[in-house]
Amino acid sequence: xxxxxxxxxxxxxxxxxxxxxxxxxxxxxxxxxxxxxxxxxxxxxxxxxxxxxxxxxxxxxxxxxxxxxxxxxxxxxxxxxxxxxxxxxxxxxxxxxxxxxxxxxxxxxxxxxxxxxxxxxxxxxxxxxxxxxxxxxxxxxxxxxxxxxxxxxxxxxxxxxxxxxxxxxxxxxxxxxxxxxxxxxxxxxxxxxxxxxxxxxxxxxxxxxxxxxxxxxxxxxxxxxxxxxxxxxxxxxxxxxxxxxxxxxxxxxxxxxxxxxxxxxxxxxxxxxxxxxxxxxxxxxxxxxxxxxxxxxxxxxxxxxxxxxxxxxxxxxxxxxxxxxxxxxxxxxxxxxxxxxxxxxxxxxxxxxxxxxxxxxxxxxxxxxxxxxxxxxxxxxxxxxxxxxxxxxxxx
Length: 396
What we know:
- The protein folds into two domains: 2-242, Vaccinia Virus protein VP39 (Rossmann fold, 3-Layer(aba) Sandwich), CATH 3.40.50.150; 258-358, Double Stranded RNA Binding Domain, CATH 3.30.160.
- The protein is 26% helix and 26% strand.
- The protein is built from ten helices and 18 strands.
- It has helices at 2-20, 29-34, 65-72, 103-113, 130-139, 151-163, 199-203, 258-262, 286-295, 345-358, and strands at residues 44-47, 59-60, 78-82, 96-100, 121-124, 144-148, 169-172, 185-190, 205-215, 223-229, 235-242, 272-276, 299-305, 311-317, 323-328, 335-340, 367-372, 375-380.
- The strands form three sheets. The protein has a nine-stranded mixed sheet with strand order 7-6-5-8-9-10-11-17-18, sandwiched between helices. Strands 12-16-15-14-13 form a five-stranded antiparallel sheet. Strands 2-1-3-4 form a four-stranded antiparallel sheet, with helices on one face.
- A hairpin with a 7-residue loop joins β9 and β10.
């Protein structure tokens, strides 16, 4: 009985919550009602909100319908695939590779897309098909092209979209290439994150058109970029809010184990010891990780936790040449650091953090991104003020 009640009450309750957050606006409400989320959520899921259900608890609709319905109509992401489909449960796999995104983010990104009636839209990352269906209702199925690299996900999403009564062009392919036969598009939206905006997305979007994509450096931190395409083939615009999407498959960065950095020796191996007054706790927020990542390319963090609540922050570079550790213990004014390799990664991170502090601790909304023939540049407040990024060799 609860499942039946949730099926009726859940959609309106979630709509009210999204409207209150100003995520779901009146122009998207008809699409929300015409393409309800539950039509695009598979029977086997891993709900994403701790407290309602842990992500590592697989929920099967036929066995736990009440939990399934509550998850669908909660403002939280739902993982629908692990390890490109290799892990099906129970428990969780290593890397989530498909999801039905958090509704707040879905509608915030659609709002940033600024679609109008009759616009042609290219979507990168069909996923479960919900976003494509919402777009179909808004601009017409004949104006929507959606691209998905995973053949199984693409097949399942296409069936869900068609059962909902929509018939966009569903393409199985590498999203980095867009879909040239359908170009030019008025709008391009990605439901996966990138560290470099594929040129095809900009080239296939008409001048004056908009590209909306999650963007984040290797280090961590991520936000949604809203880029307007110029007559010269460039694209530029501000970030419009925080995000946390799965990486475009073609841009995944493999991460090697710490043992490969230590060369078979025990930590601290050849690391040089120093002390810092900057606590690793101070550099863990998403916005500061973004700023650090822009300034410190080709590096990423990992936290090794201990039973007493202390932890070691590991920093490693993607070239597997350098590493650093910083120990975080409570009630300490100074923290022990070890660094090895041609890059002094902790020094780079601390320099980036101090820069962020001097700029007034900016949030995502003060940053922007420009993509042109010279490459990509993240800027602060204005394209005239690019963020000073260090080169991968540690200089710059």
